[in-house]
Amino acid sequence: MSLPTLHPEFRDIAKRVNNWGRWGADDEIGTLNLITDEVVREAAASVRTGRRVPLALPLQQDGVQTGLMPGRVNPLHTMVQINQEIFGPGTVACSDDAVTMGLQAATHWDALTHVSHSGMIYNGRPAAGITAHAGAEFSGIDKPRHIVSRGILLDVARAHGTERLDGGHAVTPEDLEAAEDLAGTRVRSGDIVLVRTGQIQLYLAGDKHAYAHPSPGLSVRTPEWFHARDVAAVANDTLTFEVFPPEIEDLWLPVHALDLVEMGMLQGQNWNLEELSTACGEEARHTFLLSAMPEPFVGATGTPVAPVAIL
C-alpha cells in the first residue's frame, strides 16, 4: 500500500477533518488561525506564578536521531573562529559557531509541508511546489510567526496510573478525555495540546534506540477529536508522534497525513514534558501560557523550537 488514501478508514476520516478552504484559498497556516487575539489575551491572563518550564531537548551530537530517517542528522557543532582578533592585535576577540543538523532532529515543529499524500499538501496545493532549490513554496515553517497560546498538558501516562506508556500503546480519544479529567479542565478552541506518554524517559536515561521503537503515540482516531475541539497545534514526547509500528498494517504515518495535510494542524515531536508534568502536579493545574515560536527558515518543512511553558 503506497498511499494512505487507498485505505477506506483513512479516506473517511480525511473527509471529516478536512479544512481546505476554511480560512480561504490562500491560507498557509491552517489551524493556527484559531489562535486569535482574544485567545492570546486569555492565555496571558492565566499566568499565576510566573514559573517557567523549558520543554526542549539539548541540541547535541548525541541526540535523539538513530538513522531511521535518512539525512536527519543530529546537530554537528563546529567552532569557525575562536578568540580571533579580526580587526587586528589588541582588539576585541570573537568566537563564532556553525551547526549542521536536520531541522526535525530534536525538539521541533513539523510544517504543514512536512508530508504529502496523493501528490497534495494542505489546502489542495500540489506537493510539486516543494523543490530542491527553494524548499516549500507554500506553507513553509516561516509562514507561522505567532505560536503563543494557551497550552494544556494531557498527561496520558499519569491518567493511566503509570510514569510511561508501553511501547506500541495507541493513544485514543478516550485516553485524551481521561487526561482531561485528570487535569480538571477541557481543551478549547485555539489551545496547543501537549500529550505526555513518558516515552522520552528512555532517551533521557541514555537508551535512544529503545526510545525510538516501538513507541506509544497518537492513534489514527485522534485527528477527529482535535478537529472537533478546534485545537491549534499538538505536540508530544515521542520520536514518531503517532503510534509506531502503525495500528493498521502497511498504513504508514496516517496521523501525519490527517493532521498536516487534511486538517492543516502543526505537529511537534521530541518535546520534553517531564519537568512540566511535575510542575503541573505541584501547581495543581495543567494549563499555562505557551510560547513556541518557530525559527523562520524560509521554505523549510520543519524547525527546531525551544518552547517554554509559563504557569
TrEMBL record:
It holds the Pfam family Cyclase. InterPro entries: KFase/CYL, KFase_sf. Signal peptide: none annotated. It comes from the Bacteria. Transmembrane segments: none annotated. GO terms for biological process: L-tryptophan catabolic process to kynurenine. GO terms for molecular function: arylformamidase activity. PANTHER family: CYCLASE (PTHR34861:SF10), PTHR34861. This is Cyclase family protein.
